[in-house]
Design a protein that fits this description.
- By secondary structure, the chain is of the alpha+beta class.
- 40% of the residues lie in helices and 18% in strands.
- Strands 1, 2, 3, 4, 5, 6 and 7 form a 7-stranded mixed beta sheet that branches. A 6-stranded mixed beta sheet has the order 8-9-12-13-14-15, with helices on both faces. A two-stranded antiparallel ribbon has the order 10-11.
- Strand 8 and strand 9 form a beta hairpin.
- The longest helix is centred in the middle third of the chain and has 21 residues.
Protein backbone atom coordinates (compact mmCIF):
# COMPACT_ATOMS: atom_id res chain seq x y z
CA UNK A 1 0.00 0.00 0.00
CA UNK A 2 1.26 3.47 -0.89
CA UNK A 3 2.18 5.49 2.22
CA UNK A 4 2.05 9.18 1.39
CA UNK A 5 3.99 10.20 4.51
CA UNK A 6 6.95 7.90 3.74
CA UNK A 7 6.94 9.06 0.13
CA UNK A 8 6.92 12.75 1.06
CA UNK A 9 9.73 12.12 3.56
CA UNK A 10 11.77 10.53 0.76
CA UNK A 11 11.16 13.53 -1.52
CA UNK A 12 12.40 15.92 1.17
CA UNK A 13 15.54 13.85 1.78
CA UNK A 14 17.52 11.69 -0.70
CA UNK A 15 14.74 11.65 -3.26
CA UNK A 16 15.06 15.35 -4.00
CA UNK A 17 18.39 14.86 -5.77
CA UNK A 18 17.14 11.79 -7.66
CA UNK A 19 14.12 13.66 -9.01
CA UNK A 20 16.38 16.55 -10.06
CA UNK A 21 18.71 14.06 -11.78
CA UNK A 22 15.89 12.63 -13.92
CA UNK A 23 14.47 16.05 -14.77
CA UNK A 24 17.87 17.53 -15.65
CA UNK A 25 18.86 14.69 -17.97
CA UNK A 26 15.52 13.94 -19.60
CA UNK A 27 14.53 17.60 -20.02
CA UNK A 28 17.69 19.63 -20.44
CA UNK A 29 21.02 17.90 -21.06
CA UNK A 30 21.15 14.14 -21.52
CA UNK A 31 24.73 12.95 -20.96
CA UNK A 32 26.75 9.81 -20.39
CA UNK A 33 26.47 10.57 -16.66
CA UNK A 34 22.84 9.51 -16.95
CA UNK A 35 23.90 6.03 -18.10
CA UNK A 36 26.36 5.67 -15.21
CA UNK A 37 23.86 6.76 -12.57
CA UNK A 38 21.04 4.60 -13.92
CA UNK A 39 23.34 1.56 -13.79
CA UNK A 40 24.16 2.31 -10.16
CA UNK A 41 20.43 2.42 -9.35
CA UNK A 42 19.94 -0.72 -11.44
CA UNK A 43 22.35 -2.71 -9.25
CA UNK A 44 19.93 -2.33 -6.34
CA UNK A 45 17.43 -4.69 -7.95
CA UNK A 46 19.42 -6.59 -10.62
CA UNK A 47 22.44 -8.72 -9.61
CA UNK A 48 23.66 -9.38 -13.17
CA UNK A 49 26.74 -7.41 -14.17
CA UNK A 50 26.17 -8.36 -17.83
CA UNK A 51 22.65 -6.89 -17.85
CA UNK A 52 23.86 -3.66 -16.23
CA UNK A 53 26.68 -3.36 -18.76
CA UNK A 54 24.26 -3.83 -21.65
CA UNK A 55 21.94 -1.22 -20.15
CA UNK A 56 24.87 1.18 -19.97
CA UNK A 57 25.77 0.55 -23.61
CA UNK A 58 22.21 1.33 -24.76
CA UNK A 59 22.04 4.60 -22.83
CA UNK A 60 25.56 5.55 -23.92
CA UNK A 61 24.51 5.05 -27.55
CA UNK A 62 21.49 7.28 -27.02
CA UNK A 63 23.75 9.92 -25.46
CA UNK A 64 26.01 9.76 -28.52
CA UNK A 65 23.00 10.16 -30.81
CA UNK A 66 21.95 13.30 -28.94
CA UNK A 67 25.33 14.90 -28.41
CA UNK A 68 27.45 13.91 -31.43
CA UNK A 69 26.64 15.76 -34.64
CA UNK A 70 25.40 13.53 -37.50
CA UNK A 71 25.58 10.42 -35.25
CA UNK A 72 21.88 9.72 -35.72
CA UNK A 73 19.19 7.71 -33.93
CA UNK A 74 17.71 4.26 -34.32
CA UNK A 75 14.94 4.09 -36.94
CA UNK A 76 12.00 3.97 -34.57
CA UNK A 77 12.90 7.34 -33.06
CA UNK A 78 12.60 9.54 -36.16
CA UNK A 79 8.79 9.53 -36.52
CA UNK A 80 8.50 10.47 -32.83
CA UNK A 81 11.07 13.27 -33.10
CA UNK A 82 9.23 14.69 -36.13
CA UNK A 83 5.77 14.82 -34.52
CA UNK A 84 3.82 18.05 -34.94
CA UNK A 85 2.66 19.85 -31.83
CA UNK A 86 -0.65 18.55 -30.58
CA UNK A 87 -2.35 16.18 -28.20
CA UNK A 88 -1.50 12.51 -28.47
CA UNK A 89 -2.50 9.37 -26.62
CA UNK A 90 -0.28 6.43 -25.71
CA UNK A 91 -2.15 4.37 -28.31
CA UNK A 92 -1.50 6.96 -31.06
CA UNK A 93 2.20 7.10 -30.30
CA UNK A 94 2.59 3.34 -30.05
CA UNK A 95 1.06 2.99 -33.53
CA UNK A 96 3.46 5.61 -34.93
CA UNK A 97 6.41 4.06 -33.12
CA UNK A 98 5.55 0.56 -34.35
CA UNK A 99 5.34 1.74 -37.94
CA UNK A 100 8.64 3.60 -37.50
CA UNK A 101 10.36 0.43 -36.29
CA UNK A 102 9.31 -1.23 -39.53
CA UNK A 103 10.94 1.45 -41.66
CA UNK A 104 11.65 -0.99 -44.50
CA UNK A 105 8.11 -2.34 -44.41
CA UNK A 106 9.28 -5.95 -44.72
CA UNK A 107 10.02 -6.94 -41.12
CA UNK A 108 7.86 -9.56 -39.41
CA UNK A 109 6.35 -9.02 -35.95
CA UNK A 110 8.99 -11.38 -34.59
CA UNK A 111 11.81 -9.32 -36.12
CA UNK A 112 10.26 -6.07 -34.92
CA UNK A 113 10.02 -7.40 -31.38
CA UNK A 114 13.63 -8.55 -31.54
CA UNK A 115 14.65 -5.02 -32.53
CA UNK A 116 12.54 -3.44 -29.77
CA UNK A 117 13.65 -5.91 -27.12
CA UNK A 118 17.30 -5.48 -28.06
CA UNK A 119 17.10 -1.69 -27.72
CA UNK A 120 14.35 -1.26 -25.16
CA UNK A 121 16.20 1.04 -22.76
CA UNK A 122 17.27 3.22 -25.71
CA UNK A 123 13.82 3.47 -27.27
CA UNK A 124 11.83 3.96 -24.07
CA UNK A 125 14.22 6.59 -22.72
CA UNK A 126 13.84 8.47 -26.00
CA UNK A 127 10.04 8.24 -25.74
CA UNK A 128 10.14 9.52 -22.15
CA UNK A 129 12.30 12.46 -23.21
CA UNK A 130 9.89 13.41 -25.99
CA UNK A 131 6.61 12.68 -24.19
CA UNK A 132 7.19 12.45 -20.41
CA UNK A 133 3.48 12.78 -19.59
CA UNK A 134 2.82 9.55 -21.46
CA UNK A 135 5.90 7.33 -21.34
CA UNK A 136 8.29 5.88 -18.80
CA UNK A 137 11.93 4.94 -19.44
CA UNK A 138 11.92 1.18 -18.94
CA UNK A 139 14.81 -0.38 -17.00
CA UNK A 140 13.16 -3.58 -15.71
CA UNK A 141 14.08 -5.77 -18.68
CA UNK A 142 14.95 -9.25 -17.33
CA UNK A 143 13.29 -8.07 -14.11
CA UNK A 144 9.58 -8.02 -14.78
CA UNK A 145 9.34 -9.91 -11.48
CA UNK A 146 10.59 -6.78 -9.69
CA UNK A 147 8.01 -4.60 -11.47
CA UNK A 148 5.34 -7.12 -10.43
CA UNK A 149 6.50 -7.00 -6.79
CA UNK A 150 6.43 -3.20 -6.82
CA UNK A 151 2.97 -3.23 -8.39
CA UNK A 152 1.72 -5.74 -5.83
CA UNK A 153 3.16 -3.73 -2.94
CA UNK A 154 1.79 -0.36 -4.08
CA UNK A 155 -1.49 -1.57 -5.62
CA UNK A 156 -0.66 -0.78 -9.24
CA UNK A 157 -2.80 -2.82 -11.62
CA UNK A 158 -0.56 -4.10 -14.40
CA UNK A 159 -2.09 -5.25 -17.71
CA UNK A 160 -2.25 -8.95 -18.54
CA UNK A 161 0.98 -10.21 -20.13
CA UNK A 162 0.56 -11.24 -23.80
CA UNK A 163 1.38 -14.82 -24.75
CA UNK A 164 4.89 -15.56 -25.96
CA UNK A 165 4.12 -15.68 -29.69
CA UNK A 166 2.13 -12.43 -29.70
CA UNK A 167 5.19 -10.39 -30.64
CA UNK A 168 3.25 -7.29 -31.65
CA UNK A 169 1.24 -7.48 -28.44
CA UNK A 170 4.46 -7.67 -26.44
CA UNK A 171 5.67 -4.41 -28.00
CA UNK A 172 2.33 -2.73 -27.31
CA UNK A 173 2.42 -4.12 -23.78
CA UNK A 174 5.02 -1.46 -23.01
CA UNK A 175 2.43 1.21 -23.79
CA UNK A 176 -0.10 -0.58 -21.58
CA UNK A 177 2.40 -0.65 -18.71
CA UNK A 178 3.00 3.07 -19.19
CA UNK A 179 -0.76 3.68 -19.02
CA UNK A 180 -1.00 1.79 -15.72
CA UNK A 181 1.95 3.71 -14.28
CA UNK A 182 0.48 7.00 -15.53
CA UNK A 183 -2.77 6.26 -13.66
CA UNK A 184 -0.73 5.59 -10.52
CA UNK A 185 1.24 8.83 -11.01
CA UNK A 186 -1.88 10.95 -11.42
CA UNK A 187 -3.57 9.30 -8.44
CA UNK A 188 -0.67 10.25 -6.18
CA UNK A 189 0.01 13.70 -7.68
CA UNK A 190 3.48 12.87 -8.96
CA UNK A 191 5.38 14.61 -11.71
CA UNK A 192 6.82 12.28 -14.39
CA UNK A 193 10.27 12.66 -12.85
CA UNK A 194 8.98 11.81 -9.39
CA UNK A 195 7.46 8.67 -10.89
CA UNK A 196 10.82 7.69 -12.41
CA UNK A 197 12.48 8.24 -9.01
CA UNK A 198 9.79 6.13 -7.40
CA UNK A 199 10.29 3.28 -9.88
CA UNK A 200 14.08 3.12 -9.94
CA UNK A 201 15.15 4.31 -6.49
CA UNK A 202 12.41 4.41 -3.86
CA UNK A 203 10.36 1.31 -4.71
CA UNK A 204 13.19 -1.20 -5.38
CA UNK A 205 14.78 -0.32 -2.04
CA UNK A 206 11.40 -0.46 -0.30
CA UNK A 207 10.72 -4.05 -1.41
CA UNK A 208 14.24 -5.19 -0.52
CA UNK A 209 16.11 -4.97 -3.83
CA UNK A 210 17.67 -8.20 -5.06
CA UNK A 211 16.96 -9.85 -1.70
CA UNK A 212 13.27 -9.77 -2.60
CA UNK A 213 13.76 -12.56 -5.15
CA UNK A 214 17.35 -13.92 -5.11
CA UNK A 215 17.16 -16.86 -2.73
CA UNK A 216 20.17 -17.50 -0.52
CA UNK A 217 18.94 -20.55 1.37
CA UNK A 218 17.95 -22.87 -1.48
CA UNK A 219 15.58 -25.83 -1.19
CA UNK A 220 16.75 -29.23 -2.37
CA UNK A 221 16.59 -29.56 -6.17
CA UNK A 222 13.60 -31.33 -7.67
CA UNK A 223 14.55 -31.18 -11.36
CA UNK A 224 17.49 -30.80 -13.75
CA UNK A 225 17.47 -28.73 -16.95
CA UNK A 226 19.90 -28.06 -19.78
CA UNK A 227 20.79 -24.53 -20.82
CA UNK A 228 22.97 -23.53 -23.76
CA UNK A 229 25.82 -21.03 -23.72
CA UNK A 230 28.07 -19.70 -26.48
CA UNK A 231 31.85 -19.82 -26.81
CA UNK A 232 31.86 -16.39 -25.14
CA UNK A 233 30.53 -18.07 -21.99
CA UNK A 234 33.49 -20.46 -21.72
CA UNK A 235 34.83 -18.67 -18.64
CA UNK A 236 31.40 -17.76 -17.31
CA UNK A 237 31.45 -20.41 -14.62
CA UNK A 238 34.91 -19.48 -13.34
CA UNK A 239 33.44 -16.73 -11.17
CA UNK A 240 31.79 -18.39 -8.18
CA UNK A 241 29.98 -15.14 -7.24
CA UNK A 242 28.32 -14.60 -10.62
CA UNK A 243 24.53 -14.37 -10.92
CA UNK A 244 22.98 -14.32 -14.37
CA UNK A 245 19.52 -14.27 -15.94
CA UNK A 246 18.87 -17.13 -18.36
CA UNK A 247 16.15 -18.59 -20.51
CA UNK A 248 14.53 -21.49 -18.68
CA UNK A 249 11.92 -24.22 -18.80
CA UNK A 250 8.51 -23.02 -17.48
CA UNK A 251 8.72 -25.71 -14.79
CA UNK A 252 12.02 -24.43 -13.36
CA UNK A 253 11.86 -23.85 -9.61
CA UNK A 254 14.28 -22.25 -7.18
CA UNK A 255 16.97 -24.73 -6.21
CA UNK A 256 16.77 -26.76 -9.42
CA UNK A 257 19.97 -27.93 -11.09
CA UNK A 258 21.06 -26.29 -14.35
CA UNK A 259 23.49 -28.05 -16.70
CA UNK A 260 25.46 -25.61 -18.87
CA UNK A 261 26.24 -26.86 -22.38
CA UNK A 262 28.60 -24.65 -24.39
CA UNK A 263 27.78 -24.66 -28.10
CA UNK A 264 30.19 -24.77 -31.07
CA UNK A 265 33.14 -24.66 -31.27
CA UNK A 266 33.43 -26.00 -27.70
CA UNK A 267 30.38 -28.31 -27.89
CA UNK A 268 30.63 -29.65 -24.35
CA UNK A 269 28.98 -29.67 -20.94
CA UNK A 270 31.26 -27.77 -18.59
CA UNK A 271 29.44 -26.73 -15.39
CA UNK A 272 26.46 -27.26 -13.09
CA UNK A 273 24.51 -24.27 -11.76
CA UNK A 274 21.55 -23.69 -9.42
CA UNK A 275 18.42 -21.69 -10.07
CA UNK A 276 18.41 -19.00 -7.36
CA UNK A 277 15.07 -17.37 -8.14
CA UNK A 278 11.56 -18.52 -8.83
CA UNK A 279 11.09 -18.70 -12.61
CA UNK A 280 8.99 -15.90 -14.11
CA UNK A 281 7.64 -14.61 -17.41
CA UNK A 282 9.15 -11.40 -18.76
CA UNK A 283 7.25 -10.17 -21.83
CA UNK A 284 10.18 -7.93 -22.84
CA UNK A 285 12.78 -10.72 -22.70
CA UNK A 286 12.88 -12.29 -26.15
CA UNK A 287 12.74 -15.86 -24.84
CA UNK A 288 9.94 -14.90 -22.42
CA UNK A 289 10.53 -17.33 -19.52
CA UNK A 290 13.57 -16.75 -17.35
CA UNK A 291 15.24 -17.44 -14.04
CA UNK A 292 18.39 -16.29 -12.30
CA UNK A 293 21.18 -18.84 -12.03
CA UNK A 294 24.29 -18.86 -9.81
CA UNK A 295 26.71 -21.03 -7.82
CA UNK A 296 28.49 -22.57 -10.82
CA UNK A 297 30.44 -25.77 -10.23
CA UNK A 298 32.94 -26.68 -12.92
CA UNK A 299 33.08 -30.33 -13.95
CA UNK A 300 35.29 -32.23 -16.34
CA UNK A 301 34.05 -31.29 -19.81
CA UNK A 302 31.80 -33.88 -21.46
CA UNK A 303 31.88 -33.30 -25.21
CA UNK A 304 29.06 -33.75 -27.68
CA UNK A 305 30.98 -36.66 -29.23
CA UNK A 306 31.16 -38.37 -25.83
CA UNK A 307 27.42 -37.89 -25.36
CA UNK A 308 26.72 -39.34 -28.81
CA UNK A 309 28.78 -42.44 -27.99
CA UNK A 310 27.48 -42.93 -24.44
CA UNK A 311 24.96 -45.74 -23.97
CA UNK A 312 22.56 -43.50 -21.98
CA UNK A 313 22.90 -40.10 -23.65
CA UNK A 314 22.87 -41.33 -27.24
CA UNK A 315 19.21 -42.32 -26.75
CA UNK A 316 18.12 -38.81 -25.73
CA UNK A 317 16.23 -36.84 -28.42
CA UNK A 318 18.24 -33.69 -27.69
CA UNK A 319 21.53 -35.54 -28.35
CA UNK A 320 20.14 -37.05 -31.55
CA UNK A 321 19.23 -33.48 -32.63
CA UNK A 322 22.86 -32.41 -32.13
CA UNK A 323 21.90 -30.35 -29.06
CA UNK A 324 19.73 -27.97 -31.11
CA UNK A 325 17.04 -26.28 -29.00
CA UNK A 326 18.75 -27.25 -25.77
CA UNK A 327 17.52 -24.46 -23.47
CA UNK A 328 15.03 -25.84 -20.97
CA UNK A 329 15.31 -29.53 -21.91
CA UNK A 330 14.75 -31.59 -18.75
CA UNK A 331 16.98 -34.46 -17.68
CA UNK A 332 15.79 -37.45 -15.68
CA UNK A 333 17.46 -37.77 -12.27
CA UNK A 334 19.11 -41.02 -13.32
CA UNK A 335 20.53 -39.35 -16.45
CA UNK A 336 21.90 -36.45 -14.43
CA UNK A 337 23.51 -38.83 -11.96
CA UNK A 338 25.03 -40.73 -14.88
CA UNK A 339 26.45 -37.44 -16.19
CA UNK A 340 28.20 -36.86 -12.86
CA UNK A 341 29.61 -40.38 -13.04
CA UNK A 342 30.96 -39.66 -16.53
CA UNK A 343 32.62 -36.48 -15.23
CA UNK A 344 33.94 -38.31 -12.15
CA UNK A 345 32.36 -35.51 -10.10
CA UNK A 346 31.72 -35.64 -6.37
CA UNK A 347 28.72 -33.29 -6.61
CA UNK A 348 25.61 -34.54 -4.82
CA UNK A 349 23.41 -36.91 -6.79
CA UNK A 350 19.72 -36.22 -7.29
CA UNK A 351 17.65 -38.55 -5.16
CA UNK A 352 14.72 -40.48 -6.54
CA UNK A 353 12.85 -43.67 -5.71
CA UNK A 354 12.62 -46.72 -7.92
CA UNK A 355 9.59 -48.79 -7.01
CA UNK A 356 8.62 -51.32 -9.65
CA UNK A 357 5.12 -51.55 -8.18
CA UNK A 358 4.59 -47.79 -8.44
CA UNK A 359 7.10 -46.44 -10.92
CA UNK A 360 4.97 -43.48 -12.03
CA UNK A 361 5.87 -41.68 -8.77
CA UNK A 362 9.67 -41.77 -8.70
CA UNK A 363 10.18 -38.23 -7.37
CA UNK A 364 8.33 -35.46 -5.58
CA UNK A 365 7.69 -33.63 -8.83
CA UNK A 366 5.64 -36.61 -10.04
CA UNK A 367 3.40 -36.26 -6.99
CA UNK A 368 3.00 -32.55 -7.74
CA UNK A 369 2.17 -32.97 -11.44
CA UNK A 370 0.21 -36.22 -11.42
CA UNK A 371 -1.67 -35.99 -8.12
CA UNK A 372 -1.74 -32.51 -6.56
CA UNK A 373 -2.39 -30.38 -9.65
CA UNK A 374 -5.31 -32.56 -10.87
CA UNK A 375 -6.61 -32.57 -7.27
CA UNK A 376 -6.58 -28.76 -7.11
CA UNK A 377 -8.23 -28.54 -10.52
CA UNK A 378 -11.00 -30.85 -9.34
CA UNK A 379 -11.44 -28.59 -6.29
CA UNK A 380 -12.11 -25.74 -8.73
CA UNK A 381 -8.78 -23.91 -8.73
CA UNK A 382 -7.08 -22.74 -11.90
CA UNK A 383 -3.30 -22.44 -12.13
CA UNK A 384 -3.68 -18.67 -11.76
CA UNK A 385 -5.20 -19.15 -8.31
CA UNK A 386 -2.24 -20.84 -6.67
CA UNK A 387 1.49 -20.30 -6.64
CA UNK A 388 4.34 -22.75 -6.38
CA UNK A 389 7.36 -21.41 -4.56
CA UNK A 390 6.13 -18.22 -2.92
CA UNK A 391 9.00 -16.04 -1.71
CA UNK A 392 7.82 -13.77 1.10
CA UNK A 393 9.21 -11.15 3.45
CA UNK A 394 8.96 -12.12 7.13
CA UNK A 395 10.10 -8.92 8.82
CA UNK A 396 13.14 -6.64 8.72
CA UNK A 397 13.77 -7.61 5.09
CA UNK A 398 14.27 -11.28 5.95
CA UNK A 399 12.68 -13.70 3.50
CA UNK A 400 11.35 -17.23 3.44
CA UNK A 401 10.54 -19.56 0.56
CA UNK A 402 7.25 -21.44 0.78
CA UNK A 403 8.32 -24.32 -1.45
CA UNK A 404 5.13 -25.99 -2.60
CA UNK A 405 1.52 -24.90 -3.33
CA UNK A 406 -0.04 -21.73 -1.86
CA UNK A 407 -3.70 -21.21 -2.73
CA UNK A 408 -5.05 -17.66 -3.11
CA UNK A 409 -1.92 -15.91 -1.80
CA UNK A 410 -2.13 -12.24 -0.85
CA UNK A 411 1.29 -10.70 -0.28
CA UNK A 412 2.60 -7.24 0.56
CA UNK A 413 5.70 -6.07 2.38
CA UNK A 414 5.80 -7.93 5.69
CA UNK A 415 2.18 -9.09 5.41
CA UNK A 416 0.85 -12.21 3.71
CA UNK A 417 -2.09 -14.59 3.82
CA UNK A 418 -3.54 -17.55 1.96
CA UNK A 419 -6.56 -19.83 2.11
CA UNK A 420 -4.48 -22.97 2.48
CA UNK A 421 -1.24 -24.58 1.40
CA UNK A 422 -0.28 -28.01 0.14
CA UNK A 423 3.07 -29.43 1.25
CA UNK A 424 4.21 -32.07 -1.25
CA UNK A 425 6.23 -35.13 -0.30
CA UNK A 426 7.12 -38.10 -2.43
CA UNK A 427 6.21 -40.69 0.16
CA UNK A 428 5.22 -40.74 3.84
CA UNK A 429 5.52 -44.38 4.92
CA UNK A 430 5.68 -43.80 8.70
CA UNK A 431 4.11 -41.69 11.46
CA UNK A 432 7.51 -40.16 12.21
CA UNK A 433 7.84 -38.82 8.66
CA UNK A 434 4.23 -37.61 8.78
CA UNK A 435 4.91 -35.61 11.94
CA UNK A 436 8.04 -34.12 10.38
CA UNK A 437 6.03 -33.06 7.33
CA UNK A 438 3.31 -31.56 9.55
CA UNK A 439 5.88 -29.56 11.52
CA UNK A 440 7.31 -28.16 8.31
CA UNK A 441 3.89 -27.32 6.88
CA UNK A 442 2.73 -25.82 10.19
CA UNK A 443 5.53 -23.25 10.05
CA UNK A 444 4.54 -22.20 6.54
CA UNK A 445 0.82 -22.13 7.41
CA UNK A 446 1.45 -19.82 10.36
CA UNK A 447 3.50 -17.44 8.22
CA UNK A 448 0.58 -17.25 5.80
CA UNK A 449 -2.23 -17.20 8.39
CA UNK A 450 -3.72 -20.05 6.37
CA UNK A 451 -6.98 -21.63 7.47
CA UNK A 452 -5.88 -25.12 6.45
CA UNK A 453 -2.68 -27.06 5.93
CA UNK A 454 -2.60 -30.04 3.58
CA UNK A 455 0.10 -32.70 3.37
CA UNK A 456 0.10 -34.66 0.11
CA UNK A 457 2.21 -37.69 -0.82
CA UNK A 458 1.72 -40.66 -3.09
CA UNK A 459 -0.09 -42.42 -0.21
CA UNK A 460 -2.78 -39.72 0.12
CA UNK A 461 -3.66 -36.43 1.83
CA UNK A 462 -3.82 -35.22 5.43
CA UNK A 463 -5.77 -32.01 6.18
CA UNK A 464 -5.43 -30.00 9.41
CA UNK A 465 -6.80 -26.58 10.37
CA UNK A 466 -5.65 -23.47 12.20
CA UNK A 467 -8.12 -23.86 15.10
CA UNK A 468 -5.87 -26.38 16.88
CA UNK A 469 -2.53 -25.14 15.51
CA UNK A 470 -2.69 -27.57 12.58
CA UNK A 471 -2.16 -30.50 14.95
CA UNK A 472 -5.01 -32.94 14.38
CA UNK A 473 -6.12 -34.35 11.06
CA UNK A 474 -9.65 -33.25 10.27
CA UNK A 475 -9.68 -35.40 7.13
CA UNK A 476 -7.36 -38.12 5.82
CA UNK A 477 -7.85 -40.03 2.58
CA UNK A 478 -5.82 -42.14 0.22
CA UNK A 479 -5.99 -41.17 -3.45
CA UNK A 480 -8.07 -44.27 -4.09
CA UNK A 481 -10.53 -43.19 -1.38
CA UNK A 482 -10.79 -39.74 -2.95
CA UNK A 483 -12.29 -41.35 -6.04
CA UNK A 484 -15.37 -41.99 -3.90
CA UNK A 485 -17.74 -39.07 -4.51
CA UNK A 486 -18.79 -38.73 -0.87
CA UNK A 487 -15.20 -38.63 0.36
CA UNK A 488 -14.23 -36.03 -2.20
CA UNK A 489 -17.33 -34.00 -1.32
CA UNK A 490 -16.18 -33.89 2.32
CA UNK A 491 -12.86 -32.45 1.14
CA UNK A 492 -14.56 -30.00 -1.22
CA UNK A 493 -16.73 -28.66 1.63
CA UNK A 494 -13.55 -27.76 3.51
CA UNK A 495 -11.15 -26.44 0.87
CA UNK A 496 -13.05 -26.29 -2.43
CA UNK A 497 -12.96 -23.03 -4.38
CA UNK A 498 -15.46 -20.63 -2.81
CA UNK A 499 -15.77 -22.62 0.43
CA UNK A 500 -13.09 -20.78 2.44
Amino acid sequence: MFNDYIWKTYLKADGKAVVAFFERNLCDSFTEDYARTICELHKTYCPSKAISEYLYSELKELSDGINIEDYGFLYGCYPIAELDDGEYSIENIMDIFYQGLNDSGIMSDNQLFSEFSGGMAYYTTFLAMELPELFVPYYFQHNYNVLEKISQEFEITLPVIPVKKDYKGRIYHYGEVCAALSDFRIKHNMTPYELYSFLYDFAPKYIGGTDSYIIKSLPDPKSVFFIGGSKDDAFFGDNSDIISCWQCNPDTRAGDLIVMYLRSPISAIDSIWRSVSVGFNDPFFYYYRCTYIARPQKIKQITQKQLQKDSVFKELPIVRKNMQGINGVELYPSTYNHLLDMAKSDLARLEYVVDEADDIYAREKDVENKLIKPFLEKLGYTENEYKQQLYIEIGNHNHALIPDFVIHPVVSSGHQSADFLVEAKLTIPSNKLLEEAKTQARGYAKLLNAQYSVIAAKEGIWISKADDDYSKDVLTFSWAELKNEDNFFDVFKLIGNGKI
